[in-house]
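Thread: quick sanity check before group meeting

JM: Hey all, I'm pulling together slides for Thursday and realized we never actually wrote out the predicted structure for the chain we discussed last week. Dropping the sequence here so it's in one place. If anyone has concerns about the input, flag it before I start.
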Amino acid sequence: MHRDPYRFDPEELKARFNPEGSPLRLQQLRMKEMLKVLDGICRKHDIPYWIASGTLLGCMRHGGFIPWDDDLDVEMLRPDYKRLLRILPSELPEWMELQHRDTDPNYFYSYAKLRDKNSLLEETNGYDRIFRMKGIYIDIFPQEKCPLWMQKLSCHTLGHVYKVMKDMRISEAERLKKVAFWYNLNHRLIYPLMRLANLLFPSLLVRHTFGVPFHTACHVDEVFPIGRAKFEDLEVSVPHDSDAYLKRKYGDYLRMPDVDALNPHVAQCRFF
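JM (edit): ok, ran it. Output follows.
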């Protein structure tokens, strides 16, 4: 008998993946606390944001987290992102911290994270081993208008960092030097030049900022004016047309995946 891919039992999924008290459910609850803080700060300072990717999919299909989801994503336009980074250090509670290149010298992603200070998380890819901050996190992705070819090109330049991280033949000291070199080359020279060139190739679509290896675009009018939706027991910001956003990114997003073929981001998570 074939399973209907559009029907699922929420209680069965919860019992299998994130029952109350399980490590994953505790991680989800901590991320939700962090989202509540971020939402309050953004609303206080009139900074538009929206939950994104699998977080938005979970909101629309499950009313909250996808039962097996172990991360949380938000997006915002790049000018709002830059303003948020200036505001957050003075607004965050003591148990949270902002992670980007200025606060964590070995951090090399092109987007920021909010981190929980009272946990320790290890990701399966191992890239976080050189970071100072390793708690449970929320990803904050800046978005900007740019053509697909240019955004993909920016990710190829970042690819050198990943090659360095995977090269086990070099010492950690040499690795940190090479990561710093490629980060600075990208963010101080290559990406600024790309933004200048971008003025010659205007795009109507909004994508992740340079160096973020996700390429799905969205129309501004799919996102704005920002809406609000229930995410478990919170109310959070969502794209104006979440259905169009999700169809563009996932296609038939209401169709359930093969839950036996899922790959977690997180190797282990500890609380203290």
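AS: nice. The domain at 10-144+216-271 is CATH 3.30.460 (Beta Polymerase; domain 2). The mean pLDDT is 94.
JM: adding both to the slides.
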